[in-house]
Write a structure and sequence with these properties.
CATH class of chain A: Mainly Alpha
Number of domains of chain B: 2
CATH architecture of the largest domain in chain B: 3-Layer(aba) Sandwich
Strand content of chain B: 15-25%
Largest sheet of chain B: 11 strands, mixed
Number of helices of chain A: 25
Number of helices of chain B: 13
Strand content of chain A: under 5%
CATH topology of the largest domain in chain B: D-Maltodextrin-Binding Protein, domain 2
CATH class of the largest domain in chain B: Alpha Beta
Shape of chain A: globular
Number of strands of chain B: 11
Largest sheet of chain A: none
Number of domains of chain A: 1
Distance between the termini of chain B: 74 Å
Largest interface: A-B, 34 and 30 residues
Radius of gyration of chain B: 22 Å
CATH architecture of chain A: Orthogonal Bundle
Oligomer: heterodimer
CATH superfamily of chain A: MetI-like
Radius of gyration of chain A: 25 Å
Order of helices and strands of chain A: HHHHHHHHHHHHHHHHHHHHHHHHH
Helix content of chain A: over 70%
Distance between the termini of chain A: 47 Å
CATH topology of chain A: MetI-like fold
Number of strands of chain A: 0
Order of helices and strands of chain B: HEHEHEHEHEEHHEHHEEHHEHEH
Chain lengths: 556, 334
């Protein structure tokens, strides 16, 4: 019977059966990744109990206003901050050669190793030091002005905190965009009368626009995703609202509805951005031209140095100084057994990071491989959706999506026996995979599309199967990208907080949740040592990318 | 014959293996570690503790209901214990010792839990800046004359929720909402930090009044940090009345999990916790009030003032908890 099946397929296609099997596997894996998102969106159509309706209107009337206000102010502020910190530094690094350039470039990326919530905790003392100033404002200008000043100072400090650790996203994107070869355009612009400054704004910046906007999107997602820092500063964003709805109001269904609205909002924003960009193509020829050594006056050199020093100070030097002073301060009063707790959390984070990264890698390579050889446009659309789905989902939203999936399962009685699914690490692994799949997929997809199909065609003409040529020819060629993807996903998983807080199994701490719980219990300074461990772990990952994979990935 | 010898040897081995006790605890104080270690020393029973948030522990107990892992459930809030009782997760204590040691109003109504320690929620004020017009009740603090002078932590804190729940119980929803709105209106700054941060803020001059739990005062008084000691020194304490009742109190309590494997050990453990020696130890280590009859408060605690606890609203905290959350939101208490 399989013989005739074979024959039928042969009549309809040129592909061997194994290819369809690969496709099926890719489809199923993709379905896994999409399932939380689908579960979330489907919850929009379910009816709600009386209590849920009441909670929803309660939220709408009393909580939504401050949530929208805080979310907008913090996001827009951080976007501006990261632009101001990242773009000038990227310009300096891409257009000039100077001593220790590669070291400085790597250091400029390093703040990514610091999760926003940790820096948020570390600046507590700085926040406190503003109190005398605020009190004198109250004395001089009255209570209402004081309240405004107090709130504004908190917004400002938090925006600075976010900008300091998130600007590397913008820096990386801008640096990559500015490094492309646009010499001809630049020369044309200069010869037609524009100054160097005008050239920057009229040529370089617009060309870098798509890259910078994608990085700004990442920044906005990180701000929306943050739980620790925002809570510590007393603000309310959508993530905090989700936590509140679930834990304080005890309404998981309502949280699901809110989460799906957030997801739709993000997707709409993504689509709008793409539509606004229109059909313009941002092509840069990739010839390896040397970055020219600029001859600048002393004044310009000083400005250039400032462009580098300010981000470095805010994102690296200040946090490290604060971290060390807290480590020294807390050393005397640490609880017995703290090292064991920290080691357990560290080990958990490591295991989780490595495990999920491997799973994501396998998924991504399987799905992307199938997409590479398939000519079907639905497959390409499916892949496109997969690359956006997790990307557009803040951590808390993804966690609630996974829970929505499991509660749906509970309605099927025989699956009820396995409700341990939600209480073991499986839920956490599943959610992290779905959330961070798209990061790996995008990096690997970019690298794969740069490989010419001729390698595969040559191999095929010599009798090799597609799968074999994929594994033995294409994958080794994109090793730098694989390397970078592994490191970036690992760093993201280790830094992650809200999803881990919501879905971690009983008695399971990651370094992130352990650090957060110490601060939550009022032991602020004690978070220094776990924070240092976390940052070291992430910094290793980032340095591996900077020195190892990234350079070669962009040059291939 | 051989089989019988082997089997009986195995049985003997099982019986003489170490006794143990599993605890799910919401409390995370170093004092607990010391006291649990003392229990192990005294009885030889090994104590294994898992610490987590109240909701997490409750969800865990529910999912394990058919085959419980924990023997004892310890929380920081009476409402939580009542919630566990309602869900059928706690077994009756059946301990005459506990009944003799702890007054009835500090034990669960269905005899499923007992208090271990007690704490009051009081008002502190800046010694040097506030000379008159002191609030006598919680309601007073919501008055317009205290505008911009009150410091209190976030509404997400269970301590504040329970305080509001007790006010709902004593004076009704309308008054409770008025109180929440008044306090929010009077806040010197949007809520930030925990109770100790509010006391420190009073010392810094950000506000004149703060609402805090009593044991934080003791912790700061005996702290290693000079700033904390000075901050505690800068404030005086008021034990406010709640309507006609006394000061709002809440308790840390414990219950035995229904179907627990080590029920006898659990009972021994709870009796140990409410014994006079350990109650005195808790007072010394964490500055929480003892609940055992006849145990006198420490001098440090007596120096704070006279506590007349409002124990009757303890058992309605669970009833009004959800309302408290809503009222806090309506009042705009962040």
């Amino acid at each position: 019977m399989s013989f005739t099946f074979h024959k039928i397929l042969r009549n309809y296609s040129n592909y061997p059966v194994g290819f369809y099997f690969w496709g099926l596997v890719a489809l199923v894996l993709g379905a896994f990744i999409l399932s939380p998102v689908i579960a979330l969106v489907s919850s929009l159509f379910s009816t709600y109990s009386q209590a849920a309706q009441e909670s929803l209107s309660y939220i709408r009337e009393y909580l939504l206003g401050s949530v929208i206000k805080d979310s907008l102010i913090l996001t827009v502020g951080t976007l501006m901050g990261t632009l101001l910190l990242g773009v000038p530094a990227a310009w300096v690094c891409s257009r000039n050669q100077f001593k220790y350039k590669s070291l400085v470039s790597a250091l400029l990326v390093l703040p990514l190793a610091i999760p926003p919530y940790i820096l948020g905790f570390l600046v507590t003392d700085i926040k406190e030091s503003l109190v005398p100033l605020l009190l004198s404002i109250r004395g001089q200008f009255g209570f209402d002005i004081y309240l405004f000043a107090e709130e504004s100072s908190r917004y400002l400090i938090l925006i600075l905190v976010f900008s300091s650790v998130l600007y590397p996203y913008v820096f990386l994107a801008a640096r990559s965009a500015f490094s492309g070869n646009v010499k001809s355009l630049e020369e044309a612009s200069l010869s037609l009368g524009h100054s160097a400054v005008a050239t920057f704004f009229k040529i370089y910046l617009p060309l870098a626009r798509p890259a910078i906007i994608s990085s700004l999107f990442l920044v906005a997602m990180e701000v929306m995703n943050d739980y620790g820092a925002v809570k510590h500063f007393g603000f309310n964003t959508f993530t905090i609202l989700l936590f509140k709805t679930w834990f304080e109001l005890d309404q998981l269904m309502v949280a699901q509805k809110l989460a799906s609205w957030i997801l739709i909002g993000v997707l709409v924003f993504l689509i709008l951005e793409k539509w606004q960009r229109g059909r313009a193509q941002f092509i840069q020829n990739r010839t390896n031209e040397q970055t020219h050594v600029s001859h600048h006056t002393h004044l310009l050199k000083f400005t250039q140095k400032l462009n580098l020093i300010i981000p470095l100070t805010l994102g690296l030097i200040l946090p490290i100084y604060l971290l060390f002073s807290w480590m020294i301060q807390s050393f005397g009063s640490l609880e017995t057994g703290w090292l064991l707790d920290l080691a357990k959390a560290f080990f958990n984070s490591l295991l989780l990071g490595v495990g999920v990264t491997i799973i994501i890698l396998v998924f991504a390579l399987t799905i992307l491989g199938f997409m590479r050889y398939s000519k079907n446009r639905y497959v390409k659309l499916y892949n496109h959706i997969l690359m956006v789905a997790g990307y557009a989902c803040p951590g808390a939203v993804m966690a609630i999506g996974v829970l929505a999936l499991f509660t749906f399962k509970e309605q099927i009685s025989w699956l009820n026996q396995i409700n341990w699914l939600t209480t073991t690490v499986f839920g956490l692994v599943f959610a992290l995979t779905c959330r961070y799949y798209s990061i790996a997929a995008q990096m690997l997809s970019q690298a794969l599309t740069r490989l010419p199909k001729s390698y595969d065609l040559n191999a095929q003409s010599l009798g090799t199967r597609i799968s074999v040529s994929y594994l033995t020819i294409n994958l080794p060629l994109i090793k730098p990208a694989i390397f970078s993807a592994i490191a970036l996903v690992f760093v993201d998983i280790t830094k992650e907080l809200p999803l881990s807080l919501l879905l971690r199994p009983f008695n399971f701490e990651t370094i992130g949740t352990y650090t957060y719980s110490l601060v939550d219990q009022g032991q602020l300074y004690h978070c220094a040592f776990p924070s240092a461990a976390l940052i070291l772990l992430c910094a290793t990952g980032i340095l591996l990318v900077e020195f190892g994979g990234w350079r070669r990935a962009t040059r291939s | 014959m051989k089989k019988f010898i082997i089997l009986s040897l195995l049985a003997a081995m099982c019986m003489s293996s170490a006794q143990e006790l599993y605890i799910y605890s919401e409390r995370h104080y170093t004092a607990d570690k010391k006291i649990f270690a003392e229990f192990t020393e005294k009885t030889g029973i090994e104590v294994k503790v898992i610490k987590a948030g109240a909701d997490e522990l409750l969800a865990r107990l529910k999912s394990e209901a058919k085959a419980p892992v924990a023997d004892v459930y310890i929380t920081k809030d009476a409402a939580q214990l009542d919630r566990a009782t309602k869900a059928g997760l706690l077994a009756p204590l059946n301990s005459p010792i506990i009944e003799a040691q702890v007054p009835a109003e500090l034990r669960g109504k269905e005899n499923t839990w007992t208090s271990i320690t007690m704490r009051g929620r009081v008002i502190v004020y800046a010694k040097d800046r506030v000379k008159d017009q002191l609030p006598v009740t919680y309601m007073d603090l919501a008055d317009e004359k205290y505008r911009g002078r009150v410091l209190v932590r976030s509404s997400s804190s269970a301590y504040n929720r329970s305080l509001l729940a007790s006010i709902i119980n004593n004076q009704g929803k309308q008054e409770a909402l008025k109180w929440a709105q008044g306090i929010t209106h009077n806040m010197a700054r949007p809520p930030q930090g925990g109770d100790r941060d509010q006391i420190r803020a009073v010392a810094q001059g950000i506000g004149d009044f703060a609402i805090t739990n009593t044991y934080y005062l003791g912790i700061m008084e005996t702290s290693d940090s000079e700033t904390d000691r000075q901050a505690r020194d800068a404030v005086n304490i008021i034990f406010p009345k709640s309507g006609e009742q006394g000061t709002h109190v809440n308790v840390s309590g414990a219950g035995i999990v229904k179907g627990a494997k080590n029920v006898e050990n659990a009972r021994l453990f709870l009796e140990f916790l409410v014994s006079n020696d350990i109650q005195i130890k808790y007072q010394k280590l964490t500055s929480e009030y003892a609940v055992a009859k006849g145990v006198e408060f420490e001098q440090l605690q007596k120096n704070w003032g006279e506590l007349s606890p409002d124990t009757q609203s303890l058992h309605s905290l669970i009833e009004y908890n959800a309302d408290a959350v809503k009222l806090l939101g309506i009042a705009g208490w962040q």
